[in-house]
Amino acid sequence: MFFDENNRKEQQEKPVTYKKHLKKSLEYNIQLFKDIFNSDETLVTRKFKGPTEQQSECGIIFIEGMIDVDVVNKNIIQPVLRKKILTREVSLETLQEHVIAAHKIEKTADIEKLIQGILIGNTVFLLEGASEALIITTKGWKHREITEPPSEKTIRGPREGFTEAFLTNLSLIRRKVKTPKLKFKYLTLGVQTNTKVCICYIEGITNDKILEEVERRLKNIIMDGIIDSGYIEELIKDCPLSPFKTIGSTERPDVAASRLLEGRIAVVSDGSPNVLTMPYVFQEYFQSNEDYYMDFIFGSINRLLRILGFLLTISVTGIYVAISTYHQEIFPTPLVLSISAARQGVPFPTVVEAILLLFIFEVLREASVRMPEAIGQTISIVGALVLGQAAIDARLFSAPIVVVVALSGITELIVPRFKGANIIVRMMLLFLSAFLGLYGFIFGVLILLIHLFGLRSFGVPYMQNYRSLEFQDFKDTVVRAPWWYMILRPQFIASENKKRRSLIRDTGGEQ
User: Residue range 136-153: average pLDDT?
Assistant: First the structure.
């Protein structure tokens, strides 16, 4: 959780947990690590020396399952033994520079750094007569292969997705943005988990004030563990009680790269395939990476469908309840008679029908997501066809309200990012419509707009592009304009470098 500055300083000023230091005795040093990792049977210690008694002894320490065994055997143990260099005068510097074959070796006497090295999959090398040790990079645990994210599938575009491997995720971003101006800043969060977090941004495009604010909020996080980037999102977002996201997340490297090119900041967390992007504004709910990979006309049509889906899912149930309860004169007379006939024998008022059906729909949706794929499809079919028809035949619900709720539920799936916000906003509008009719619905819409226009994401207005009448601010909102018209980066997000390069076609503009 967040703490004030004094508490944070107190946390930082606490003495180091391990007060003991390395000595020149190999036995003492190995026993020191055994005491620290007491009762941990995955800790492996190995001592070895040359063939003669005059040669010095050395040892390695690592955690089983976290290292690449071949690297340890071929790059550490074999070179040290074969070169017969373990004399009494040999030093760690000699072994580091001339014997051990590893792309990264660090010499240190800091016991905390040595422990962290062991915990992340490195090997600690100890030498008799040396009060320092070598941290040798030997990470080699198994991780998931790079595949397409199941939650962000597209027809056209890259198929790569982030994994739980920290460095792999950073390399995927680097492969998309090949410039030395792409910067990575490391932080360590979590008192117990010591989770590595990386702030990614493009120097000269990212707004420095936003970057400082992101770094400040991350440094103010003090809690036992950070298991997933979702922990970070909840702790640093603006207006945490709002149902709307003020921090984006993606499992696709191409999406993260495109956000960086617009001046946004990405936060990568070790062990999480979801990369956070910030600032996050309302229009991003309706944007898809596929919009930019196809013709701008079809991309704009798809975006309009998403916006229409959002408007329908939050409003259609409330409007139907308001009109059928208070304003029947709006419906044509044949439709009113049809609805009245369908409601004959139904025991519940319209608003109760709507609430119960929405609840059942959400239960079926959640069950289909959590169940195995084959069973989930079966549940969806049974819920939609069998239960729906049985409820109508049993006169528990009327047919019109089933159609209305089904339309509201299906359109909810068009914009899955709205998952939580859709439910809350829809229920609010439904209750206001049930009590005050269309006046309540309009009142609810005004409350929603006031809330949205009052939100900010790291100082950036949440509805920034919808409150401007300039074409450059409106070019990538309701529709996706052609690339040659999108000359400027988003206002308020990018720094002084607001003009995109190589986008003006045959106009004599900057290339």
Answer: 82
According to the model, what pLDDT value does residue 212 have?
Answer: 92
Q: Give CA–CA dist 119/137, Å, rounded.
A: 12
| Mean pLDDT (whole number) for 211-226 | 91
Q: What is the pLDDT of residue 135?
A: 92
Task: Name the residue among 440, 450, 357, 428 with its Cα closest to residue 398.
Answer: 357
pLDDT of residue 146: 85
- Is residue 5 domain-resident? no
Q: Are 266 and 170 in contact (CB under 8 A)?
A: no
Count CA atoms closer than 13 A to 29's CA, side-chain side: 30
Residue 228: burial class (beta carbons within 10 Å; 0-12, 13-18, 19+): middle
Q: Which amino acid would we find at residue 481?
A: A
**122-148: burial string, b at 16+ Cβ within 10 Å, e else:** bbbbbbbebebbbbbbbeeeeeeeeee
Looking at residue 293, the DSSP 8-state letter turns out to be T
pLDDT band for position 125 (50/70/90)? Answer: very high
Q: Does residue 14 lie within any of the structural domains?
A: no
Residue written as token pair 């016991």: 111
Q: Let me know whether 288 and 306 are in one domain.
A: no
Q: How many CB atoms lie within 10 A of CB 226?
A: 25
pLDDT exceeds cutoff 70 at 504: no
Closest CA to 369 of 379, 359, 382: 379
Q: In terms of pLDDT, which residue wins out, 221 or 506? A: 221
Under 8 Å between Cβ of 77 and 95 = no
% helix / strand / coil in the chain, to the nearest 5?
50, 15, 40
For residues 466 and 490, is the Cβ–Cβ distance under 8 A?
no
- Same domain, residue pair 286 and 314: no
Q: Answer whether residue 14 shows pLDDT above 70.
A: no
**Judgement on whether residues 87 and 209 belong to the same structural domain of the protein:** no
